[in-house]
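Can anyone check this?
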Amino acid sequence: MSTPVQAVAEALVAAHRQQRTVAAAPFESLLQEAGQAYAVQEEVARTMRWFDRPVPQHWKSGGPSRTGTLTHAGLPPQHVWASPADASGTHFNWRLIEAEVAVRLARDVSPADAQAFDAARTAQWLDGMTVSIEIVDSRWENRAASALLKLADLQSHGALVLGQWRPLEARDWAQQACTVQIGTAAPQSFRGTYALGDPVWLLPTWLRHVTRQGATVPRGTVITTGTWCGMLEAKPGEKVMAVFEGIGEAEVQL
């Protein structure tokens, strides 16, 4: 008999391989805590053979507020692209757009480093930042699933597009402006709308998550830090452009 983790992982693997969604209802009661959801992530990744290294090179992390629970997922490299990206031949069940800021580690981070991390010295641990676009997707039918099932499904990840890297610099994030244009619609503007205030605020929690089983996070690992625009719906054939004033831009053709 399958364990709860195996049962959920098998459903998600089938959804990935068959490029379809699966009903969440039969699995809703199987996962009881976040550790099981992360175990599903790892089991799906092993079965799909996504990663050729102990620690994925690209990650997503984020949360609704500084008092909320942060969630994390390693991202399949075949769906991480440099901007301008062409995703017109890639299957998605949904195409929801998040405009984000990604940062990159300047050094290896061991488990001991992660536990002793000094948030006041965050900039010394990073060597770059860029604009990113996350295409949010789901393997669950109608995107209707519990929080733990969504977390098991890479926190509803579809693909990541990364703009040009630039040196990390101190910014007034409360005044940071961002615009997103989807297709021929008018650009939508956002300012200071990032839920955690500063994109690097989540770094200590994310590092402790990634190193919790003894792994060292390599220099060059990238983390995209969560949305500035909520989730905006896009359709096949549309081009998406995200611009962060003073940082750069990213674009993807759907």
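Reply from J.R.: I decoded it. The longest strand covers residues 126-136.
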